[in-house]
Amino acid sequence: MPPVEKDAIVVGAGTAGAYAAATIARAGYDVTVLERKSEDEAGHIACGDALKGADEFPDSIPKSTFEHAISNPDVDHGRFEIPQADTVVDIPVPGELAVIDRLAFGKAIIDGAQNAGATFEFDTAVTDVLQDGRQVTGVTAMQDGQPQAFEAPIVVDAAGALSLLQDKADLEETTFDTNVNYRQFTSAYREIIEVEEPVDYEDALVFKPTDRAEGYIWYFPRTGTEINAGVGFQMTAEPMQLVEALREDLESRPEFGNAKVLDKLGAAIPTRRPYDSAVAPGYLAAGDAAGHVNPTTGGGIAGAAYAGTYAGESAIDALEAGDASEDVLWEYNERIMDHFGGRYASLDVYNILTTAVEVEQLMDLLASIPAEKVSEALYAGTADFGLGLKLRTMLGSLGHWRLLYQLYQTKDVADRLLDHYETYPESPAEFAEWQRERDAIMESVYQVTGASPKY
Predict the structure, then answer these.
(1) Which DSSP letter does residue 297 get?
(2) Nearest of 106, 6, 115, 124 to residue 60 by alpha carbon
(3) Does residue 47 sit in helix, strand or coil?
(4) Pick from 316, 339, 326, 402: nearest CA to 365
(5) I need a surface site. Which of 152, 223, 382, 388 has the fewest CB within 10 A?
(6) How far is the C-alpha of 180 from the C-alpha of 164, rounded, in Å?
(7) Residue 346: Cβ within 10 Å count
(8) With contact defined as beta carbons under 8 Å apart, do 8 and 22 qualify?
(9) Could you tell me which residues come within 8 angstroms of residue 323 by beta carbon, excluding any fewer than 6 positions away?
(10) DSSP letter string over 328-390?
């Protein structure tokens, strides 16, 4: 069959893909989204369903499009259950917070992109990347059992974690980040569970550590009686039996007696820094496909929406210039790093620390730190610890002073890293030197934390 020619091809109909396609279509360009799932299944994605910052989403898909999918707008804080210290710590969450019906949200943003003028090809599984030298020129796919080529000056990779496109494309002679492996990801499993009586944490996102520091359990209330319950572990560690770990915890909680499981799904989540560069000639990656996820919370919906929008806007710039080189696309990287990339990179430092400490010590220390400071660290990437706060924390963490000192050292290195990301280069020509300086800071991270290198 002859190739299908478009102005832009987007691979993946998730959040990043829908927002990228809507942005490009609104500018009058012919953009098609290739989605491997059927039209009925598209939008069905394993997710924690928590949505932070819904009041500030990009307007390429208006919020009114998906407001009906916000099933619980009343959550306003996180709740950390710490069995090791027999305590619960409530953590304030800045900005608007909600829990959504992820399938309804996924369907809504696909509709939003279609309303903007994007077309969708469902049941279309991408198999390879087309290139002319370094330049990406399209993809091949299987569609209705037949091979089909799709060609375009711009390809947006929104195909999710460990994207197939990045395995197939030759990116070695580009700036695109190829320092990616499965150990930088979290494996997760979640169930949607209906309980008989409303839970007493309807206004909170509940987090609980497993018996290993690399694992965590969550309970996010879609409604008072419909709970997103999940478990994940960082793949730096030995694998966990995810279903068994979740099942054991569910059975220990009285609110899940006689509960009904409505849905089950698993996924890989990038819990790493955002890609150093997510561009190559004719090619941009966005959302999970470029590590655009908060590595401490796993939250990625808002980041994917903005990344998709920025990718779409950079695609428009390239189409208008008739030039899809890395130089033209580079501003996309700058916008990502300025908006959230630097913050996420600094948060990853704390993720690295957790791989080198005992969960009991870490949880005892968490219980001794004021909640608002934990919130700052989780969402801002840094927190201000004055002398008085340090003294109070020390008194509350007797027996863990060595870890407390290590945490302060880690914070100092994370702050250095955050500062460095504020100097992200304005062109590919300065990129290699910026990476060398960043890698030197990362050496300090590993020295301070005692963790094995992650990158």
Answers:
(1) T
(2) 115
(3) coil
(4) 402
(5) 388
(6) 13
(7) 25
(8) no
(9) none
(10) HHHHHHHHHIIIIIHHHHHHHHHHHHHTTS-HHHHHHHHHHS-HHHHHHHHHHS-----HHHH
CA atoms within 13 A on the CB side of 388: 0
CB proximity list for 305: less than 8 A, separation 6 or greater: 15, 16, 19, 57, 58, 61
DSSP string across 177-245: -----GGGEEEEEEEEEE-SS--TTTTEEEEEE-SSTTEEEEEEESSSSEEEEEEEEETTSPPP-HHHH
H or E stretch covering 23: helix 15-26
C-alpha 364/C-alpha 152 separation (Å) is 54
Do the Cβ atoms of 161 and 72 come closer than 8 Å?
no
253 CB neighbour count, 10 Å cutoff: 15
Q: Look up tokens 């550590």; give the residue.
A: 209
**Closest among 136, 138, 116 to 308, alpha carbons compared:** 116
Tens of each residue's pLDDT in the chain, 455 residues: 899 999 999 999 999 999 999 999 999 999 999 999 999 999 999 999 999 876 778 999 999 999 999 999 999 988 988 887 778 888 877 778 899 999 999 999 999 999 999 999 999 999 999 999 999 999 999 998 899 999 999 999 999 999 999 999 999 999 999 999 988 999 999 999 999 999 999 999 999 988 776 788 999 999 999 999 999 988 877 777 888 999 999 999 999 999 999 999 999 999 999 999 999 999 999 999 999 999 988 899 999 999 999 999 999 999 999 999 999 999 999 999 999 999 999 999 988 988 887 666 666 666 556 555 554 555 555 555 554 444 444 444 445 566 677 777 888 999 999 999 999 999 999 999 999 999 999 999 999 999 999 99
Angle, helices 371-380 vs 342-354, to 10°: value is 120
The C-alpha atoms of residue 204 and residue 245 are separated, in whole angstroms, by 22
Report the C-alpha dihedral over residues 138, 143, 145, 147, rounded to 10 degrees. Answer: -20
| pTM for the model | 0.92
Identify whether the C-beta of residue 155 lies closer than 8 Å to the C-beta of residue 8.
yes
